[in-house]
Structures
1.
Amino acid sequence: MKEVEMMADTNSDWKKALKSKVTFHDFIINYFKEHQELTGSYDIPSYYEHYVVKLDKHEQLIITLTTGMNQSGDNVSIPLPMKEKEKMSIEDFRTLILNKKFADQNMSLADVFQTVAGVQSTNDDNSK
């Protein structure tokens, strides 16, 4: 129960922190001190996308996205997974969130990182 309460607090805290450059910076620094990394994925039988977000020693967010095809048969040749890495300052990330108006939606910090990484949402598939 405490974990659920903490997650709910984190979801509202990051949105409140967006209002100030300094507060958001402190929030992200503290978040990654506690969590080390944030991960997520989108996986269907034929395709997958996985992302990892970390904070480096220069206080830059490092978003690593790995995409690939899942094997569907015994002798199928599959291309190697593709890995992309993007660096972003905490303030650039805050500006991106504000410009895209993620804060107005009912999204968690993980949802926002997923969108920034370019990972499809499972909700998008369910709405088709």
Note: Residues 12-117 form one domain.
2.
Amino acid sequence: MMLRDYLRTLPQSHLFDLYETLYQQETNVHLTEVELCEEIVAYWESPAHWDEFVAALSPFERRAMTRLALHERCRIDAFMEEAATLGLVILYREHNRYEMPDDVRVQLLERLPSLRDLLRAEPEGDADGTTPV
């Protein structure tokens, strides 16, 4: 499933909420469902928005997004709920499962470190093993 396909399944009120979240609009905009979908997709097609999103993630959130992008099992938690409000994760609460659109997955995997890199990373510290203060 692609992001555009997923957005077409949402009601207009949800699309409008998503649009407001992404664009931080203060005034009311009058767009059709199709226009809202296109605006949301256009937002996420911008590499600058992806870079900004990834840069804002904490190390925990980066690991969570990497796991999601790699189809690993994750708990549905507050962070995943927040990702859903951005249109990046599709939550099926009644079935306790989630899905990530393929184009979102590709964008994240291009920008996030792999789990192997995260596991192989050594903690910061001096040569003697002490951590700097």
Note: Strands lie at 90-92, 97-99.
